[in-house]
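hey can u check if this looks right to u? its 195 residues, i copy pasted from the old doc so theres a chance i mangled smth
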Amino acid sequence: MTLDFDKGGGRVTVVTRDARTGAVLMVAHADREAFARTEATGEMHYTSRTRGLWRKGETSGNVQKVVRLTPDCDSDAVLADVVPAGPACHDGTTSCFREAGEASGAFARLDAVVRARSESSEAEKSYTRKLLADRNLRLKKLGEETAELVTACADGDRERATEEAADVVYHLTVALRALGVGLGDVAAALDRRAR
């Protein structure tokens, strides 16, 4: 990867996003040494005016495993797709960007809610808990919603197909969570196929 470090006074801008969800996690800078360390270790390294060279997660444990590094058209910025081991922001949030924490926000929020419900008390009453507790109901609902989506698509009904697709995604997320699989795992499988 050839980068133009001269434009930025020896550094390039790095936009870091979660490779599984597309969430923009942070923006930082890196110099030649940071990229050399990143490539050598497979974990993100950055350069700060105040801290100098630093490895993300060195003190917190929230390392960022590199999936791919993509320079922009001018070679003075890099898109770093990573798998984070924890929050990216120093304040403990997933992203340094409050509202844009997850580019695929609706999917990530759904996945987080279903995961939280799966980990909640058995006594908690919710439709998600009911589905998680009953394998047959869970699979029946996934099949029903998929059939309704197929019908809407066959009818050419865009609005209904969109709504039915949302139902399928919800029931699919619950069915996968019952197996201990999250949407991030599905995104990782798609990334592997893309390579």
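The chain has a mean pLDDT of 89.
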